[in-house]
Amino acid sequence: MFVTLALVLLIVAVPGIERRRTRRSQPIDEQQYFAAVHAELRAGASVREALAQAASGQGAVLAGVHRLATSGASLDEVAAELSRLPTMGAAADAAVRVAAHSGGRAAAVFLRLADRAASEADLARQRRVLTAQARLSAGIVGGLPLLWLAFGGVGRLQSLVEAGGTPVALVGVAMETVGVLMVWRLAAA
């Protein structure tokens, strides 16, 4: 009974926890952000104003950019915060530092960053589509032992627990759950 309850808890709770964790870290639409910076610069805003305006309400990483840019922090600090962007962070960091120190026009650079971010997002979508079958197969193969436990192997596992093998049973179920989680993480990547 104990093993069945633990197994059901693992099967139900782990995917929910994983979904909640990934929901908290929603991806930033870098293409939209860089296009907004470009539009602000074309409208006559300074680099600092453009970065701050485009970053308002865009997520946790860009909230730091907004906070630093509006508080008067140096553009080097703002650029360092931009380097935390997952795809185009290093390029955005370099673009802001060059614009801050050279005083050159940065609108065209941010337009190119927006185009490159859009290309990267398209490539990521294509990669997910092309690897869908492999991810599905990995999920099925990784989940089969859990299905076996849930529908047929619980009796055998219960006899192992009754024979004093509770730690072994729990370690086995935990290892299988970790394996399934790894497959899910790879599928989400």
Task: Tell me about this structure.
Helix content is 83%, strand content 0%. It is mostly helical and 189 residues long. It has two domains: 2-25 and 131-188, no CATH class; 30-115, no CATH class. The protein is elongated. 24% of the residues are buried.
SSE layout and pairings?
Blueprint: H1 2-24, H2 30-42, H3 47-55, H4 60-71, H5 75-82, H6 89-102, H7 107-130, H8 132-162, H9 166-188
Helix pairs in contact: 1-8, 1-9, 2-3, 2-7, 3-4, 4-5, 5-6, 8-9
Strand content: under 5%
Tally the helices. 9
Overall mean pLDDT: 79
Count of domains:
2
Largest sheet: none
Question: What share of the residues lie within helices?
Answer: over 70%
Q: Could you list the spans in which at least 5 consecutive residues all have pLDDT below 50? A: none
Number of strands: 0
Distance between the termini: 36 Å
Q: What is the H/E order?
A: HHHHHHHHH
From the helix content, strand content and strand pairing, which structural class follows? mainly alpha
Assign an overall shape.
elongated
From the alpha-carbon coordinates, what is the Rg to the nearest angstrom?
24 Å
Q: How would you sum up this structure in a few lines?
A:
With 189 residues, the protein is an all-alpha fold. It contains 9 helices and no strands.
Q: What are the defining features of this structure?
A:
single chain, 189 residues, mainly alpha, elongated
